[in-house]
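Key result, reporting period 2: structure in, sequence out.
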């Protein structure tokens, strides 16, 4: 004899009822019946829990069910009841109810109804009611999250478009030409891959009134529109100050005063130099910036940097001037830190990659410089995900 047989029929029924009750709690669902002729209504225990109703008050009669449904869903309840009476197959709908009659505790429920059939047709309704509040709440949260994400992406795309347009309007033509017969200049401006990281990198390559070639690269701290605005102030100031013909270290003195007193709460780095096309002497100064790299006879070497602190870091700290005489076939590379710095590698590793790739940049023929800069960028890993990179190459044709 089985164990169920030893327990007896009453015990079997109790165990089955307990299991059904447990299943209803796990699924947060229960059943209900409404009889038309007798007016009798029967609810399982879980339906009382779903409605937040005291079992001592008894179930809610069918005519009064609409009182517990939010007004906007009453029409859906009516359609559900009529459909249940007309159909043999079960019908369902989702409704919102006031749990315990409390407007601050609205619950989402799914109601499945089917007619109780008698000899003359439908004599009542049988329903299964499930509380799906948690599921719908999660879906609404996901939908809201998707909406916010989409809006954020649209705002970011719009901001990026504005920043790119502004930066292109501020910076000179990337295909700039100094108009000097034995000097070729090429520029590569590589925007960061991430939208929020558009920053204040800048360059300048233009003839000065005395015939020398003004060369400069720089980077303003920060990202986004504020950094681009500060970059525009700094670069335009340099272009104006360079008209005085003063040497690079004096220009940095003035730019430092500008950042300290007019572009507050920011700092900037820069390399500024003048290249004399007759003597091929490059006279340059730096403000906390990476030194230019000289490529000569297949060897890449950083120039010895003269003394100079960040723009905006301190007042009264003089900037020094250094000079380097270039030769035919030389290439001078000036770049911002976005070219070498990556979160995924040390700065020294990035510098080593640039130095190795720079050895392959030729400068004797005019078209070689353009191709060489493209190859250098590819060899060091392409665009920086977190920061812009500006690379200015100057070739002395031979």
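The corresponding designed sequence is given below.
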């Amino acid at each position: 004899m089985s164990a169920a047989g030893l327990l007896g029929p009453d015990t079997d029924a109790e165990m089955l009822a307990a299991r059904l009750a447990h299943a209803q709690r796990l699924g947060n669902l229960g059943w209900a019946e409404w009889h038309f002729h007798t007016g009798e209504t029967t609810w399982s225990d879980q339906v009382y829990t779903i409605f937040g109703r005291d079992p001592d008050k008894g179930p809610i009669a069918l005519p009064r069910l609409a009182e517990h449904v939010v007004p906007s869903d009453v029409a859906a309840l009516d359609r559900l009841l009529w459909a249940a009476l007309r159909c043999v197959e079960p019908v369902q709908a989702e409704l919102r109810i006031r749990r315990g009659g409390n407007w601050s505790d609205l619950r989402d429920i799914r109601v499945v109804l089917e007619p109780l059939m008698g000899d003359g047709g439908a004599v009542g309704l049988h329903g299964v009611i499930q509380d799906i509040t948690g599921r719908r709440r999660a879906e609404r949260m996901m939908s809201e999250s998707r909406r916010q994400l989409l809006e954020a992406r649209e705002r970011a795309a719009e901001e990026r478009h504005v920043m790119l347009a502004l930066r292109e309007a501020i910076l000179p033509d990337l295909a700039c030409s100094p108009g000097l017969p034995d000097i070729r200049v090429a520029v590569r401006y590589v925007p960061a891959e991430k939208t929020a990281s558009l920053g204040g990198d800048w360059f300048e390559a233009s003839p000065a009134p005395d015939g020398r070639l003004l060369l400069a690269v720089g980077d303003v701290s920060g990202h986004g529109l504020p950094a681009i605005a500060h970059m525009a102030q700094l670069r335009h100031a340099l272009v104006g100050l360079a008209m005085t013909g003063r040497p690079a270290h004096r220009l940095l003195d003035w730019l430092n005063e500008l950042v300290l007193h007019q572009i507050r709460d920011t700092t900037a780095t820069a390399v500024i130099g003048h290249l004399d096309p007759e003597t091929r002497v490059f006279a340059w100064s730096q403000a906390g910036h990476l030194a230019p790299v000289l490529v000569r006879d297949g060897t890449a070497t950083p120039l010895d940097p003269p003394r100079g602190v960040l723009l905006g870091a301190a007042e009264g700290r003089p900037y020094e001037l250094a000079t380097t005489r270039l030769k035919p076939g030389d290439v001078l590379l000036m770049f911002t830190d976005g070219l070498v710095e990556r979160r995924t590698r040390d700065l020294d590793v990035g510098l080593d990659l640039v130095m190795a790739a720079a050895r392959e940049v030729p400068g004797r023929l005019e078209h070689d410089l353009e191709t060489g800069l493209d190859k250098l960028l590819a060899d060091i890993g392409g665009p920086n995900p977190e920061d812009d990179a500006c690379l200015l190459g100057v070739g002395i044709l031979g």
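The CA atoms of residues 66 and 323 lie 90 Å apart. Confidence is low (pLDDT under 50) at residues 1-7. This case is discussed further under Risks and Mitigation.
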